[in-house]
Every structure is written in structure tokens, then in C-alpha cells.
Amino acid sequence: MSVLESIALLGATLLVVGTVFPAISRNPTVALTLQAAGIALIGSGGALVLFGAPLIGAEFRSSLDPALGIDGLTGFFLATLALVAVPALIFSRDYLAGVKRSRALVALCGLFLISLVGVVVARDPSLFLASWELMTLVPATAILVRRSDATVRRAVYVYLAVTHLGGVGVWICVLALAHYGALDNPAALAAHGSALQAFIIAAAIVGFGTKAGLMPLHSWLPRAHPVAPSHISALMSGVMIKVALYGLIRVLFEWAAPPPLWVGFVILGLGLLSSLGGVLYALMQRDLKRLLAFSSIENVGIVALGLGASILFSSQGDTTWAAIAFAAALLHIVNHAVFKTLLFLVAGAFERAAGSLDLDQIGGLLRRMPWTGGAFLVGSMAIAGVPPLNGFASEWLTLQALIHVALGPSLGIGVAGAVGAAALAATAALAVFCFVKVVGLVLLGPARRVEVETAVEAPPATRGALVFLAGCCVALGAIPGLLIPSLMELAPQPRTLANGPGLAIPGTGSLPSPWLLFGLLALTGLLWRLRGSKRSAPVPSWACGQRIEPSLSWRSAGFTKPLRLTLEAVFRPQREIVAIREHGQLQSLRYRSEIPHLFDTLLYRPIQRGALRGALIARRLQSGSVRAYAAYLLALLLALLVLARIGAIG
Amino acid sequence: MNALAGAIQLIGGLALAPLLPGSIQALKARLQGRRGPSPLQPYRELRRLWGKSLVDPQPTTLLYRLAPCLVAAAMILSLFLVPIAGLSPNWPLGNDAIVLVGLFAFARFALAASSWDTGSGFGLMGSSRDLTLSVFAEALLVLALILAALPVGSTDLVAMSSAANGSAAWSQPAHWCAAGAFGLVVLFETGRQPIDNPDTHLELTMIHEGPLLEYAGRDLALLQWSAAARHWIILVLAAELYLPHWGGFGARLACLVGGVALICVTLAFTETAQAKMRILRAPALLAGGCLLALVGLISWLVS
Amino acid sequence: MSPAAITALVVLGFAVMLVRRRSLATLLVSAQAMVLGIAALSLARGRPADFLVAAIILLVRAVALPALLTFTRRRTPEPYLVIPATTVLVRLVLAATVVLIAAASIPPLGLGDRPAEHAAVALLSLGIAIVIMRRPALLQVLGILVAENGIYLLAISVPGGLPFVIELGVLFDLVLVVTVAAAFTHKIHGEVGSGDTDLLRALRD
Questions:
Q1: Residue A581 domain boundaries
Q2: What is the number of alpha carbons within 13 Å of residue A17 lying toward its C-beta?
């Protein structure tokens, strides 16, 4: 056994021990430490494989004998998982203190990590599908263990229903691939014609796309993510939906490779819809966690844009840019994992401190919680995609890939690339809009709630975890170039590119991110020195001489109003004003406005109605007697046997 | 040559930028039959503000006080990216067009966050309008940049500028479309009519002026310089990529000066002749620009 | 597999269909599982891993599950006799018909053991027939077990055996089903005072 294998095995053992530990001990610290150590070891094993160490364990196999292994892509996802899981576990220690059933939550968190690791290290269909189902069920359990009121039960029900319906696609796709032996021999599928390949790819897009939250298959995501405990939300948004993308990448770029051209257009289209739709709905949310959930849809869309661009490039034979676009997608996966985990964890800390996540009712937390608030500011800037943080690096690379798609010779592909690039640019601008709103309403301005005035800074361990993640945002933004060569090695046709810490890509003006970071810091410092020589006088805000009334202060709805009016046709906001009169005098006015989720009203509700109508018809078969059902079963069995006998089937 | 270009990038950007809004204002006044301020008025304003003391509105955080420095730092960095007459010394910052877009977004983020910090409605009104329009403007900007990148297949501003050199580029309909589309970007980024009115502080009309209202002294000086620098960057970029220029460094430098002057005159004329548009109509204008750019792209890909 | 064992399996299945007492029926199913388990053990001779799995399955199927059902039966005494839906003779004739149709129409499955294939499908259809024709909840659970035994017979007849994942997975499923069914039997008994499933029809709507 090599050193690497022993590291991975030791990590797995620690993780399992940490998961069952709450059963024998009341102390969550030991269990969480064991889990964190375990996942850190597994992640470092994965990182070593990613950066060139030999593969660990088995290769993929189409038979059902359980097998485990780590290759470069798995290593990348394991390293990403460890990078965000360790801070999330450290955070959860303080977060779960004093919470009911915290032992169960600690154990479930460990089980969730095991299932996430299981999906990416599985090397055979049985283990893959088993971990996949576990990965769906464990967070649902964790949500219900924490809270089980009617709204939460409803959210969990929708989550399980949608992901299981979509999950059928995963089963079909993986089992069909195993049947044709395509898991260990990618050429096997080619012999069976393009119709089969198209079928498998369509099943994969539906199955993995549902779990990844790609629009229009996303409806569970904004319901389930906000109600989970914060560290579970962080792992769901940060890692779980990426693991779904892992499955999609395996199918599109390995098992059913090379995908035909239309797949590139479909993935690009889904990415475009998800990124724009996700961020537009995120902008209109008032609940912080729900907003973050919609923003996850946006970021999955950006990853899909990169993957779609990669497919379009390889269909044109441009393998270098195909590898760059692929690397851009992976880079955005790790970047989004880092800042989305950070934001969800901070949201948990804020909920504790301020007692609410309603954006309109927080305000001014940066003064009370400088460390947590500062980390949140860094995470918000990163997710808004402003330089020099990590979100900008991966969005820059994805945008460059789309621009180079647009520069290509073919008309259809070129226009698709240009539309994608314009959409990504608009998405980036909307993300700035969205997260300026969040930063302003949560961190800045006057406190809008009494609890904020007495909010206390998070405990040191939590603070450390958050600052570590914020540091990752800065570091990954400063030196993305060190990752790119390894990520390009993972592309179906690996290409190497000489690269420094910045991104020097041929065909671009290059993104020298360390210099950008240094330049911004140095110039800001210089200007601060120049400016700061005069003492400033504290005064009340001027506001053109008007008094600042708390009741007239700006809220989420006001800030986004210009966009809501501009895009009225898209949002279709509903307003309702009720005037209550008595004796001819106006007593009170009630105003309600709502942005309906169009996918729910226009897409899901008709499907739901149709299904209910069908169920009403099918109900006539229901007699309520177990014996009648068994009779149906026997009749079916005999009919099938007879049909098989006369040669009609089989 | 490179050193000269570098010197103009930096010294010109830092020192000459305020001249652009100043001269547009002066020209506009003349066109409207007024005497108006001198083109050097922005320099006097900056000197006056630099000598004044600062105010520190309560309750604000450090972010509010840092915002002017952050905005100005982003603008100074942007100066290094834009080539002068097709040349740029090998600064370690590269010359990428999309990095420029990113730095502008950074400045926008910092300024909008500062207006949340004071909680003043005027600042937030301006920021929210600015951010709304920026959604369409950024898409338009990227499309216009794609069109300029078509001949060289690169988003390196130096290469793009060389590709626009000479008359060959103008035989392509795509280049005409790109110039038209970028014209709209110029209107938005410089805050000119019909999209924004730089002369008023009325709450109904203002966009870019709003977030500046609470600042005073050196903070305000930095922000006003940044607005002028934004003029410089966008106008030089427009002249470099989308206006005709020929020949070697000297000739191109002359073309650049002529081009920037031409845009200033055009802006002054537009401001005089064109009333400000309803804010909600501006996105439609910018979206129309996107369509124009797409038509240009299609014409290039078909030929 | 020896003809004697196959005959024994089918005969035991028919007996479950016919007997009246729940305790006797449980014993019969247990005996059936025992026969099947011993046959599996003898087939797995020389392959230690398969032998171990077969032994685990034997213990669960022939000992643990019947014990669980016996425990459930003790906790749910019937206050009065549940009148059978049909007489013994009718049950016998119907069961024989179903089994003959199924056995006659099964196409060759390619296991190389034609009698085992016939017996498997016979047990499967017999199990479902038991669920249809018996009213007490516990006997319906036993019917499911008979059907499961038929499937297990197919599984052990596959040359070389099936992967452990499947065998143990099916076993896990079975344990789950029987546990849930036992719990429900208890619940039903608590609600309506009898294990007669026909009384449940009133609960519809």
C-alpha cells in the first residue's frame, strides 16, 4: 500500500469514526474534530492526485462489484470538498451549541460528508448510485431534525419529490452506461449509434441537471437550501450541487464522449437561462438564505456556460480552448464552493446575532461584528465578480472562452458564443447589483432592529473559519494561474499551457491577478495616506438637508425598483393595495407586492395540475383492498409470462 | 516610443483627464449662447476641494471613507491598460479589455456600497439607477469589444487597436456597427445626455452625481477626478478602437488627439440638441445597441 | 438442485395456502426457507465467501424473520375466528390453476436447471395468490415471504451466484419490508381489534 493510499484510508476511517462517535459520546467537539481531520486527509490525498501523484485505487468498471478510486477529477472535487468542509465543521461546533438534537445533526453532517465523498470516489454503478441517493436523503433528514413545522415539511417534500423524479435520469443514464460497458471503455457506446448516446446524454442532463439546480429544473433548490441548518446549507450549495456537476462532467466528457454539437448548444442555453434567471430572482429576494440559494443557481449556470463553450470548441477541433473553457468551469466550481460556503456560514452567524435574515430588518452589522462582517464583505465582492478576488478570475476566464467561441468561423456557434458572452456580462453586472444590495442592507447603514445594537462578534473558532474562507477568496483570486495547468490536464484532450500565478492565456490581454491585487492595495493605501492628512469631522448624514427618517429608509424593494420596472415583462410583479374605509374616512392602507416565481406559475403548476387530474382517473383502480392490489400484480405477472411465452416480448 | 506612450498613459490620464469634462462644458455653454466656465474649471474645483476639510457622516463605517480611494485606485489602474496610439509599455498589468470592464465594476461596487452606508436616499437612487443601466451597458460593452476583437482574435487592447489601424477595418460593416454600439457605451459611462445629465442635482434626473452628494473635501476631489478619468479612459478607448487612424506612432497620436476632440465636440452637440431620456427608456436604447452589435457580428461571420 | 428439495419447496408453499392457524403457516414458511438455505449452502460449497453470505441469509430468512413474525402473532391475538374468504378446496384449485399457468408459460431462462425455474415461478405466483386469498394480515406477510423464496431460488440457481451487493441488498429489503409489515400488523390490530385486512376497506376515502 502506498503512502497516498494510507492517507486516504486513514482519512476515511477517521471520518467514519467521527460520524458514529456521537452515538457514544455527548461531546460534539471530538466527533467534529475527527470528521474534520478525516475529510482534510481525504482532501489532501485528492489534491496530491490532482497535482500529479499516481492514481489511487481502482479504475471505473461496469460490473456491480463495489470499487473505490481517486483520479484527477475526483481528486479535484475531494480537495474542493475538504477546503470548504473543514471550516464548515469548525463553524458548526459553535453553531450547534445549545441546539436541540445537536448530536444527531453532528452525525448527519458526517454521514453527508461520507455520501459526498462516496459519489466522487465510487468506481462502479452500485456504489455511485447508493451514495447518490444517500446524498439526497441525508440533508433532508438534517433539515427535519432541526425544524419540522409545516413550511419546512413542505419544502423537504418538494425537494425529495423533484430530486427523485429528476434522479430517475441519473439511474437510467448510469445503468445504461454500465449495461453497454461504457464506464470502463468509453469507445463501447460509439458502436451502438448516436441515438443511444443522445438518449443517455439527455437522461444525464435531466438527472444531474435537476440536482445541480439548472433552470428550469431548479424549483427545489430555493426551497430546500434556506431551511437547512447553515453549515448543511453551505455544504449543499457549496459542494452537493457541484457533485451533481461532477456526474454531468463524467458523462459528457468521459463516458459518453465526445458529445455531439447539439449538446454544446443545450448546455450553453441552460447555462444562460440559469445564470441570468438565477441572479434576476436572487436580486428580488428579501430573505438572505433564499437569495443565496438563487445565486447558487446563477453560479451553476456560469459553470454550465464554461462546459458548453468547451463542447463547442472541441466540436470545432480547437482543443486548446476546449481545455481552457473546461478549466474555467472547474475553477468556477472551486471558487463558488469557497465563497458560497463563506456566505452561508456568515448568514448563520448573522441569524444568531440579529435574530433575523430578513434583509430589510438587519442593517449596520459591520460595526458590531467587524470580523464576521469583513469576511462577508470579501465573500460578497468575490461572488459579485469584482477584481481582484477569485470570482472575477473564473468569470474572466469563462467570459474569455465565450468571446473566443464568438470569434469562431461558424455562424451559429459564433452567435451562440456572443449571446452567451453578453449574458455573462449582464449576469456579472446583476451580481454586483445584487450583492451591493446585500452588503448595504446587512452590513452598512443604520441598524434596523434592536437586536443588532446588542449583537456580539462570533466566537474565535467561528471567526477563524470565516477568515480562513475569506483568505481563500483572496488567495484563489491572486494566484489562479497555479491551478490552471492541473485543471487543463483533466480536460478530455489535455493541453498544457505555461502559466505563472496570473492568467496569461494566448488570445487575451492576460489577467495578471497578483499585480492587480498588489496595484489596488498599494494605490488605495497611497491615496488613503494622501487623503488622511486632514482630520475629518463627524456630522450627521446630510441627505440634501432632509431629515433621515427610519421609516423612510431605503429597503430592498426600493433599491431594485428601477430594474423591476425595466424588466416588468419578465418579472410580472403583482401589487395589491387595500384601502380600509370607515364612515367615508380612510382608516388604513395595506400594501402588498410580490414577485411570483414564473417557473412555478407557468411551468410547474400546469404539470402539477395535469398530474393531479391523471391521478384522479387512476384512482378508480384503487379499491382499498390489499388483496385486490395483489390480484393486479398476479394478473400482470401471468400476462407477462404468457406474452413472453408466445414471443411477443423478450 | 513605448516610454512616450507610457508617459502619456499615466501623466495624460492623471493630469489631462479633468480637461475633457471641462472642455465639453465650455463648448456646450458656447453652443447654448452662454459664456460659461473656462475649460480649466475642473482643475480649480479640484484645488479648492483638496484644501477643504473632510466630513464623516454618522453612522458610517470604514468602507464609506475608503470608497473614494478604492474608486480612484481602480481608475488609476485602468489608465495603465489603455494603449496610447496603439502602444503600451510592458506594464505587469497586461492590456486586457475584460479586466478594464472588471475594474469599472469594482469602482461601481465601492461607490454603491458607500451610498448604502450613509443611508441617504439620493445616493441610493443614483446607485440603483446606475446599476440598473450597467446591466445593459456591460452586455453592450462586451459585444462591442467582441466586434473589435474579431479581426485579431484577441481581447488584447494593443492588438485590437492595431487591427483598427488603416482603412481596411472600415470596409467591414461589423466595424461600423461596433462604432455605433460603442457610442452608446460612451454616453452611459461618461454620464452624458440623453442617458444622464451631468449638470443637475435634481433627484428626478441624476445618476452618477447621486452617490457623491455626501462627500466633501479630498474625498469629493478624488471622486470628481475619477469621473474625469472615466471620461479619459472611455474616450481614448473609443478613439483607439472605433475611430479611424493611420500610419506610425506620430500620426496615430495626432489621430488620437483628433478623435478625442471629435468625441468631445459630438458629446457637446448631443447634449445641446438632445433632451434627457426617461430613465426607463434608456435600457431599451442600450438593448437596441446590443442588437446592432449582434447584426455586426452576423455580418462578419457570414462574409 | 435435487428434485426432492424442489418438490419440498412447492409442497410447503401449497401447505401455507391451505392451513388455518397462523403459527403453523409461520413454521411452514420457516421450513421452506430452511430447505432453500441448505440447498444454497450445498451449492456454495468450496467458495468460502459465498458460503458465508448464504449462511447469513439462511439465518435471517429461516430464523430471524419467522421469530419476528411469531413475536408479532403473540402480541396480536385474534378475539374470534377470521372467516376465510374461500373454502380450502376452492383455494387449492385456484392456487393449482395459477401455478400451472405460470409454470407452463415461463420461457427458458437459461439457468440450465429447468425444474428450478419452474419451481421459482410457481412459488412466486403462489405467494401472490396467498396474499389475494387469505384475509389475516400476518398470512399476507407470509405470502410475500413465499414469493421472495421463489426469487431467492432463482438467485441461487444462477451459475456462479449473484454479486454480494444484490443478495445482501435484497435481504436488507426483505428485512425492512417484514419489519414494517409487522409493525403495521400491530397497528392495524390496535386500531380495528383484528388482523383482518378486509376491515380496512372501510378506511378508504
A1: 567-595
A2: 12
